[in-house]
Each structure stands twice: as structure tokens, then as C-alpha cells.
Amino acid sequence: MLTKEQRIRDYEYLWDVLHRCFPLKGAMERLGFDWDKIEKECRPGVENAADDLEFCIALDRVFEEFKHFAHTNLLNARMYENYKTFFRSIAEPGSEYSAPESVEPWIRCFGQPRSDAFYSMFDSTEGAGREFYWKGEAPEKPVTAAHEAPKKGEGPFAAAFMLPGETAYFKVPGIPMERIPIDRPVFFDFYAKYGSCENMVIDFRGNGGGATDYWKKLIVEPVIDEELVAEGKMGFDLNELNRDFLEASFSEDGEFASGVRRPAEELLELPAFHKEDLAQVTEYYHWFETYRPDREHHFTVRNRIWLLTDKRVYSSAEGFAKFCKENGFATLVGGTTGGDGGSMTPSHAILPESGLVIRYKCVENFNKDGSSNAECCTVPDIECDPALALAECLAVIAAERSA
Amino acid sequence: MLTREQRIKDYEYLWKVLNSCFPVREVMKHVGLDWKEIEEKCRPGVENAADDLEFCKAVNRVFEEFGHFSHSNLLNARMFENYKKMMNSFVNGEMEIGADPEGLRPWADIFNHEKSEQFYSRFDSTEGAGRDFYRKGEAPEKPVTAAHEQAKAEEGPFVYGAMLPGRVAYFRIPSLSAERIPIDRPVFFDFYEKYRSCSDMILDFRGNGGGATSYWSKLIVEPIIPEPLTVVSYMLYCDSEYNRDFVKYGFSEEVGEFRGEKHPIEDLKKEPGLPKLSDDYLIQPTNYYKAFEEYKPDPEHRFTVENGIWMLTDKRVYSSSEGFAYFCRSTGFAKLVGETTGGDGVGITPFHAMLPESGLIIRYSGEMGLNPDGSSNPECRTVPDIECDPALALAVCLAAIAARES
């Protein structure tokens, strides 16, 4: 069991990582979060924890107070095991991941003897969810909605339909990497069968993210006629705690292989950039991503593409929303998204005494106007009750056709 | 505070009412719910309750064990206040019900006992109480949830109507609440006036837990049907000293919600066209009501549907929404797409009973309705013509329309 001094050291290390590597304090303050208050309020729970379980729960409270803003989490045993497997698998030859050679810094965060030993005390079954339980004490995980069944079984996640007026409709509830080979036929068989449509509606409502390659390979590249170069900016302060992650991402094998590092002061030229964010952002990376038409699986959209969104659109699903809006790829209909997408894979840090692993974004991702994407998210072109987004979208299509 | 003897008296009265008036005991066995077991399981909580709050929770447990099957509930303070207001509004003609207000007299009267008023006054009746019992002032704050719930608090219509590609009229109907009828009426009638006709009509009832039958009969069915329609339904009930007024008024030719005929239960097997009528349905009820519901075309608000009408369903379609699913299935008015419904929509407004010592009020369906094939509606519910993940029901429906067109 950790001593009080060890717990305090881990707690202070945690806050050191957040202050130096999680450049979203300014964005969070604008949304009403007070880091100093959270640090003070959570400290007693850490100091006075009766055992290691209480310590974990006390630490986790920091991230609950953060409302897990921008992918911040304390990994419990289930998440630890899942990520350990995940990062190793995407580095394997033949994986769907587009940057397997850059995964090493993430892999190194999992499998350290201290972490393995500490996490081995806790329950890693599905029933643990995001919580900490002693081994064997997590509840049974109930099966929930029908559409969750395919997660466990073999069926595809996505569904495709041709609707009246030659409107292609795709329901895409999630874009996890492991679904790419399973969902690919849903898209490609549809494209092969129909060849074209008048309008394409892509329903991302409820889609919490997964892999950028899912939407890049299965949606964008089959649809575009010419190369498209997207760009973006991510702010950070490089230091010894996050160097490996940033350099791997920006390397020629990395997620963002094409780009340049620039001084943060240039961000002041963007109309919606907040000057106070320079306290944590000392430079930014201006990246470029090329999307190349997939001629083999081409699908023509004669009129428009539409993306349905709600507040659960997050992470790489948000990345698609941002891509659509900033590049004119699709008209967004529905509710403002959940934000924090279109930037690098979240980083990790290992707390030195316990070996617990935290997760967080080590960059601040900017919208085109300089606003913080995690803070401002993506606002749809046509805002409406997300429950009605499909009907609203189709009604607009009908009105345009009859005009 | 109630004495132990008083609590036991109320508990035993509760079970007398259920056994004599709630005609689904045998059907609930089909879904694994045994009344005797539940009665024995919940009794200690009632007997040993430390105070009246614990007593209420212990009685409530019966209905939680029932899974609130067939509208069965113990009303908490919030529900007591809401129903009292609603039932009195119906009887006073302040709210549209689509039936003779006098027919609901027993429903209003049961809420006007001082004993109930006094007992409920000690518990929290704010929105945050939900269905649970809390001492006054102790219920949590009710969080604001989905956007459409804002409409409950504000004045805007609940329903949404739009014309989609292919001249498909689409209506999203989240609720059939009676107080929304005058507010939602213009959405339907203005749409009918504007467009006059469509190729197909989709009625999205997913998530719709019910309200008033007159919502759908007046705003949807009667503007569309070209000729009068009569729908026959069978409601099995118990005629008992504990529900006599409800039976007398509810199944009354003069003031009841439905015109019809009362029959002894033994005659039910002679009725034609009920292949799935099970013998155990007939054990508890004493009678059945053969109801004839007439729908007459509304000459002032016409709307033509050239091809098909479709109803989107999920398991939350219940009560008078389920009534609409039943109507669609038995008349062929619409094809159903989605998930099997929640059931219990063939019948009249649920009955109430007052526990004599506390004044607590319970609610339950006073009849068991049959599906067109004779199966139990609360048990078997309505299975869609096209079954699919309800989240995809709109797309599946539109795709079926597109496939037909091509």
C-alpha cells in the first residue's frame, strides 16, 4: 500500500503534468472550471485515503471535476488493459492504423512493472466501466441497447440505405479502428451498387469517435474527385514530459507527418484566439493532410453531402465534423458537437509512485478562426433539435429540389 | 404515523383490490411474475416499516416488482397532485379528452378525499421526486434533459411536421398529452391545408408513452379516412365491489369512453376471429366489454395519402400510443416499422383505488385488452410489420418507400 508521502508525490506530479503539458487551462477557465479550486478540493481525499482504492477514487475525482474535458482520464484497470492491447495491436504490421511506426511512446506507457503490479489489484472486467473496484468486486455489465450488440458480435456497426429522391443515408454510430474492415463492405458495396446519388446524408449523431482513418478511407476518399489538402493548427509547449509524443506525431511516420512548427505569437493573428492561452502554448504545429481520391471505390454525389451532429460527436468524429465545416465537404445539421477532435492521439503519463496512468491531450487544437476546438466545438450550419436532424435535413433537401 | 395494524390493513386491502380488479394476474405469470411470491416478498417491509415514508416505499416495491405492468403504480405526492389536477380538468371540461367528461367522475372523485390530501401533504410533490417518495423538501432537483422536454415547460408545439423528398409527409409525435391537443392541432391542420396530399405519410411515435386517444383520432385519423370506420376491441375486466363505480362509468353506454356491450366472460370463446385467446385469460375476469369505436371523416380538415401510412415504433410506445398501434394493425391504417411496442393500449383510462388507512392511491389498468388475434395486448404488445433497430426505423421506412418507387 502506498504511504501518504507517496500519494502526495503522485498527486503533485499529476498537477505538474497538467500545468505543463495540458494546454487547455485557459479554455477551461472560460468555461467556468477553476483548476486551483479543484486541486485544493481534491487534495484532502488523496492525503487521507485509507487504502490504495480510496487513493485511486480520490485521484479520479480530479478528472470527474474536469468532466473529462479534452480526453482527460485516470485509467482504471479495465482501461489500462484495453489500451495496452490496443496500442500494441495498432503497431502490428497489417493493422488499419496509418502511422504504426510512431506508436512507440504510447506503447511504453503500458506494461511497466510498477503499473502492472498496481493495476493487478483492481477489477479489469467490463463491469468496472471507468470506475475502480477491488479485483472481483465490479458489478456485472448489463447488455444495453440493441445497437450495442454488434460491439460484441461480428456484424457491422454502420448501416446504409437509399432513400427517396436518391438520397444516400449512412448511419455511423462509432468509428473504432477495429470496425474498419468489418464496416468497409457496408460502404463499398453500397458505392458499387448505386454508383451515385443526388444527396448523401451521413448520420454521426451519438458517434463518440475512434479512428480518423475510418472516415478518411471509407467516406471522404471515395467521394472526392480531386486531391484535397486540409490543414490545421495545434498549440503546445514541448518539454521533457511530452516530447516523445509530440515528436512521434510530427515525425515523417507520424499522424501529422506534414507540417511545420511555428512560434505561438502568430496565433494572435487569428480573430478568435485568446491571448491568455499563450501562458501554456509556446509554439504551434501547422499541419497539412492530403486526401486522395480512391478511384477504385468511387461514389459520385451530384448535389450535396450532409452531416448530422449532436453533442456526443467527439474526438475523431468531431475531427470529421471540423473537416466537413472547414473544407466545405458537408453541410452540418443538428446540435453543436462535443469538440476536441482532429488533433493528435491523446498522450499518457505514468504517476511515479503508483504507476497509475493518466490520459490527456497535450495539444490545444484550434478551429480555423483560432478558437479552441475543445472549448467551442463545431456549430452546425443548420441548428436544430438533434432528434429531428434527419427529418430537418431531408426537408431542406426536398425544399431545394422543389425550388 | 400509521400503526403497524393500519399498515397491514392497507397492504391486505391492496392485494384484495389487485386480485379482484386487476385482471392480468395469470398473464403476468407468462412473463415470470408471480403475485403470491411478490406479496410474500414485500410484506415484511410493510410490517416492519419504521415510519410512513418507509411504509410508502415498501408498498411501492410491489409495483416495482410488477415492473409497473399494465399501468400499475402507487401514486407518489407528485403524481397525486398531477392526476388530481388532470382528472378535475377533464371532468370540468377544461381539457379535451374526446369523451363525455361525466364519464370520468369516479376518476376525479377519488382524488378529493381529505385523508389522501393529509397523507400526501407530508411528501415532496416537486418534479424532482419523479415516481419516488421523499419527505417534503427532500427530493432532488430535476435536471433539464433533452431539448424536447423544454417544450413541455414552454408554449411551443410538441409535434413536428415536414415534407420530405418523394412527397413523404413526416410527423414526429413525442407525446399525446391531452393538454397539447390545442397547441399541436395547428401543426397538423396547417400542414394539411398547405399540402393537401402526399405520397406517403410517416408517423414517428418512437418514445411516445401515450396521453389521450383523441389526439390521434382527431388530429391524424379523422382528417385522412375517406369513409367511417368502426373498430371492435375486447376488454376483459372484473366487476367487483372494489371498482364498481369505475366499471359503471367507464363501460357505460351513455358516458363511457367507448360504446359497446357488456358480456359474461364465458361468452368470449364464442366470439369469432380470436385464434390466440388463451384459456388462462378467462380465470380472473368476470366480464368482457365488446367496444365499438367509430371514426368519422373530418370534412373540414382533409388530407389525402396516396400510397401508404407508416408508424414508427419502439418499446416505449405505450398506453394510448399503443392504442394507435392497435388501431393501425386492426384496420390496416398503417404499417408498423421498428421495435415491438410497450403494450397496454387497448382499454379505458386506468382505474384508481384508495387504501383506506393511509389514503394512498394506487393506479392500474381495469381491463386487459386483446390484440386483434386474441392474444393479450399488455403481454404480447404489437409486433411491427417490419422489425428493425428502432434507431434506424425512419431510414428503413424511407428505404422501403424508395424501393417500392423504383
Secondary structure layout:
The complex is a heterodimer of chains A (403) and B (406).
Chain A: H1 4-21, H2 25-30, H3 35-47, H4 52-65, E1 73-74, H5 77-90, H6 104-108, H7 113-119, H8 149-152, E2 159-163, E3 167-171, H9 180-194, E4 196-197, E5 199-203, H10 212-223, E6 228-236, H11 243-250, E7 259-263, E8 283-291, E9 300-301, E10 305-309, H12 315-327, E11 331-334, E12 347-350, E13 357-360, E14 364-366, H13 373-376, E15 382-383, H14 389-402
Chain B: H1 4-21, H2 25-30, H3 35-47, H4 52-65, E1 73-74, H5 77-91, H6 105-109, H7 114-120, H8 147-153, E2 160-164, E3 168-172, H9 181-195, E4 197-198, E5 200-204, H10 213-224, E6 229-237, H11 244-250, E7 259-264, E8 287-295, E9 304-305, E10 309-313, H12 320-331, E11 335-338, E12 351-354, E13 361-364, E14 367-369, H13 377-380, E15 386-387, H14 393-405
Parallel strand pairs in B: 3-5, 4-9, 5-10, 10-11, 11-15
Antiparallel strand pairs in B: 1-13, 2-3, 6-8, 6-14, 7-8, 12-13
Question: Mind explaining what this structure looks like?
Answer:
The complex is a heterodimer of chains A (403) and B (406). Chain A has 403 residues and is an alpha/beta fold. Chain A folds into 2 domains: 4-126, no CATH class; 153-346 and 362-402, 2-enoyl-CoA Hydratase, Chain A, domain 1 (Alpha-Beta Complex), CATH 3.90.226. Helices cover 36% and strands 16% of the residues of chain A. Chain A has helices at 4-21, 25-30, 35-47, 52-65, 77-90, 104-108, 113-119, 149-152, 180-194, 212-223, 243-250, 315-327, 373-376, 389-402; strands at 73-74, 159-163, 167-171, 196-197, 199-203, 228-236, 259-263, 283-291, 300-301, 305-309, 331-334, 347-350, 357-360, 364-366, 382-383. In chain A, the strands form 4 sheets. A 6-stranded mixed beta sheet of chain A has the order 2-3-5-10-11-15, with helices on both faces. Chain A has a 4-stranded antiparallel beta sheet with strand order 7-8-6-14. A 3-stranded antiparallel beta sheet of chain A has the order 1-13-12. The radius of gyration of chain A is 22 Å and the shape is globular. The termini of chain A are far apart. Chain B is of the alpha/beta class and 406 residues long. Among the domains of chain B are: 4-125, no CATH class; 157-227 and 305-342 and 381-406, Alpha-Beta Complex (2-enoyl-CoA Hydratase, Chain A, domain 1). Chain B is 36% helix and 17% strand. In chain B, strand 2 and strand 3 form a beta hairpin. In chain B, helix 1 runs antiparallel to helix 3. The radius of gyration of chain B is 22 Å and the shape is globular. The relative contact order of chain B is 0.16. Chain A binds chain B through residues 145-147, 159, 161-165, 167, 169, 171, 173, 335, 385-388, 390-392, 394-395, 397-399, 401, and chain B through 146-148, 160, 162-166, 168, 170, 172, 204, 339, 389-392, 394-396, 398-399, 401-403, 405.
